[in-house]
Task: inverse folding
């Protein structure tokens, strides 16, 4: 996957701090950009971080707590002032459209583009978006409001052909596409040349899982098993487990435990409570269970 990166626009929780805004991320891949959640200061952070909106056509909202969606109206209004023409799709709980549509009709009545709300169920897994190279699906989380995680998964890539073998077996150009997709080749003499003689395995597919607000829940593991990069909320230190349970959030230790059990490649933790001015103890706690863990910071970029 080329030009594939995750940019953090907001890394805090419900109460913003001097260094952490409310949650939002932009995942860029295959010349497309996808926004995940849209907290209050998202459009300001986009300016600060030089995030282009030209390729942003889909926004995925995990749940309807304000720190995950208060930024939508302002962002849409600004996009209108930029004379945008491409339609915008917002994937969310069905209740979001009746909440936002009156505001858009009042504040954004002369938009040069259309806003489509694409509702999905937050009690099951659904495919929310698909193109020739990517599938985006949801999966249920457990929070005080219906909440979902998102899995961005690159489709299996084509195999790499061996030019010298194609030349040796005189493979016609019209057969190459099928061979890249795993087909054997039959010569004019009727000899079957196995695909493994003509190609090498495809490059690994990349996947990114986003686990928004949730309690510790091992039921999500089948959805995120083996992903390249996992973001999991880690609002509290484990010494504040009772607070995490009361607010239906996760501790850094629990987030790392999920990453370890799911055999992911790398873990990012965020959505930190404003009580933690120093977040290094959260990182230390997570790394004690899953060493390949990083904290998310506003403006940080992670290459996949």
Result:
């Amino acid at each position: 996957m080329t030009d594939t990166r995750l940019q953090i626009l907001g890394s805090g929780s419900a109460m913003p701090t001097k260094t952490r805004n409310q949650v939002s991320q932009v995942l860029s891949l295959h010349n497309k950009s996808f926004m995940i959640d849209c907290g209050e200061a998202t459009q300001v952070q986009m300016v600060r971080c030089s995030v282009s909106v030209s390729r942003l056509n889909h926004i995925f909202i995990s749940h309807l707590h304000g720190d995950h969606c208060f930024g939508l109206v302002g962002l849409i209004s600004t996009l209108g002032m930029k004379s945008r023409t491409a339609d915008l799709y917002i994937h969310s709980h069905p209740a979001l459209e009746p909440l936002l549509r009156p505001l858009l009709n009042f504040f954004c009545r002369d938009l040069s583009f259309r806003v489509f709300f694409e509702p999905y169920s937050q009690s099951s897994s659904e495919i929310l978006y698909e193109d020739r190279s990517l599938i985006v699906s949801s999966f249920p989380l457990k929070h005080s409001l219906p909440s979902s995680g998102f899995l961005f998964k690159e489709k299996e890539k084509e195999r790499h052909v061996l030019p010298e073998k194609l030349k040796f077996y005189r493979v016609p150009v019209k057969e190459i596409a099928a061979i890249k997709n795993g087909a054997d080749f039959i010569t004019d003499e009727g000899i079957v040349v196995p695909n493994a003689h003509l190609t090498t395995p495809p490059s690994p597919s990349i996947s990114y899982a986003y686990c928004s607000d949730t309690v510790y829940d091992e039921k999500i593991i089948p959805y995120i098993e083996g992903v390249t990069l996992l973001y999991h909320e880690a609002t509290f230190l484990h010494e504040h487990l009772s607070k995490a349970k009361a607010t239906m959030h996760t501790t850094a230790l629990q987030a790392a435990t999920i990453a370890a059990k799911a055999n992911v490649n790398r873990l990012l933790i965020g959505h930190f409570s404003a009580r933690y001015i120093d977040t290094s103890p959260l990182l230390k706690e997570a790394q004690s269970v899953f060493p390949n863990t990083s904290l998310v910071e506003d403006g940080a970029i992670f290459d996949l």
User: Anything to note?
Assistant: The chain has two domains: 5-157+203-303, 160-200. The chain has a mean pLDDT of 95. The radius of gyration is 22 Å.
